[in-house]
């Protein structure tokens, strides 16, 4: 199991520095998937990304709320929080942050895999995803 | 020349599951086996510490603050 900033995420980070209104979108869109595997830095997709209906492979990611928070040094951590509520049952095995809300589009920034969380319709997961700079 | 340990990024995913019937399950940080056993150990060592204090210990804050008997 691992949670990583993937290689494509480095371009997102550097792109966000450019200009007063960066053309690089903020990676605050939360997606989840149901496939198996260990997240790696070369990954560009989630493992079998699904919509809130966990039987559906197209749809929309959840727009998270982003902030700077302190882990060790003041504001050293980028944090995105958001809740996805299942409208169809399934087992969530991985999640990540994207720079685009539409499934099948955008660039992956962070990806993590974990022990599957079985969800029935109406169950929800409140995610807190953190990227700490040190 | 020494290479400074800087400009490193690390990521974590924490989760709380709320069931349709209202049951709440705090899963904490999802990805780390090591954190799992370490938290268990800390809970055994400091059974009267709050969850927040255990999380402080888990993050290594006591390395800066001194012996981990705060709370």
Structure summary:
The complex is a heterodimer of chains A (134) and B (71). With 134 residues, chain A is mainly β.
Write out the strand line-up for the largest beta sheet of chain B, numbering strands in chain order.
Answer: 1-2
Mean pLDDT reading of chain B: 73
Tell me about the largest β-sheet of chain B.
Answer: 2 strands, antiparallel
What kind of assembly state do the chains in view correspond to? Answer: heterodimer
Share of helix of chain B, binned: 25-40%
Shape of chain B: flat
Work out the helix count of chain B: 3
The largest contact between protein chains, plus residue counts on each side, is:
A-B, 31 and 22 residues
Mean pLDDT of chain A: 95
Task: Describe how the helices and strands are arranged.
The complex is a heterodimer of chains A (134) and B (71).
Chain A: E1 3-5, H1 7-15, E2 29-33, E3 49-50, E4 62-63, E5 65-69, E6 77-85, E7 90-98, E8 108-119, E9 124-133
Antiparallel strand pairs in A: 1-8, 2-3, 2-4, 2-7, 5-6, 6-9, 7-8
Chain B: E1 9-18, E2 24-29, H1 33-45, H2 51-59, H3 62-65
Antiparallel strand pairs in B: 1-2
Describe this structure in words.
The complex is a heterodimer of chains A (134) and B (71). Chain A is mainly β and 134 residues long. In chain A, 7% of the residues lie in helices and 43% in strands. Chain A is globular and about 40 Å long. The model of chain A has no long low-confidence stretch (mean pLDDT 95). Chain B is an alpha+beta fold and 71 residues long. Chain B has 3 helices and 2 strands; from the N terminus they run ββααα. Chain B has a two-stranded antiparallel sheet with strand order 1-2. In chain B, a hairpin with a 5-residue loop joins strand 1 (9-18) and strand 2. The A-B interface holds A 1-5, 13, 71-72, 95, 110, 112-115, 117, 119-134 and B 5-20, 27, 30-33, 59.
């Amino acid at each position: 199991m691992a949670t990583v900033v993937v290689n494509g995420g480095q371009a997102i980070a550097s792109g966000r520095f450019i200009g007063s209104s960066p053309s690089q979108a903020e990676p605050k869109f939360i997606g989840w998937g149901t496939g198996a595997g260990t997240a790696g830095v070369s990954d560009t997709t989630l493992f079998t990304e699904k919509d809130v209906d966990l039987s559906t492979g197209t749809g929309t990611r959840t727009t998270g709320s982003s902030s700077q928070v302190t882990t060790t040094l003041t504001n050293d951590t980028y944090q995105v929080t958001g809740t996805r509520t299942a409208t169809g049952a399934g087992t969530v095995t991985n999640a990540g942050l994207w720079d685009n809300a539409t499934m099948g589009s955008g660039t992956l920034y962070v990806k993590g895999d974990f022990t599957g969380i079985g969800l029935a319709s109406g169950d929800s997961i409140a995610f807190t995803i953190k990227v700490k700079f040190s | 020349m020494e290479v400074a340990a800087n400009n490193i990024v690390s990521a974590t995913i924490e989760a709380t599951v709320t069931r349709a019937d209202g049951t709440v399950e705090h899963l904490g940080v999802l990805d780390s086996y090591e954190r799992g056993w370490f938290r268990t150990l800390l809970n055994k060592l400091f059974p009267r510490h709050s969850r927040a204090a255990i999380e402080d210990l888990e993050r290594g804050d006591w390395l800066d603050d001194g012996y981990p008997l705060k709370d």
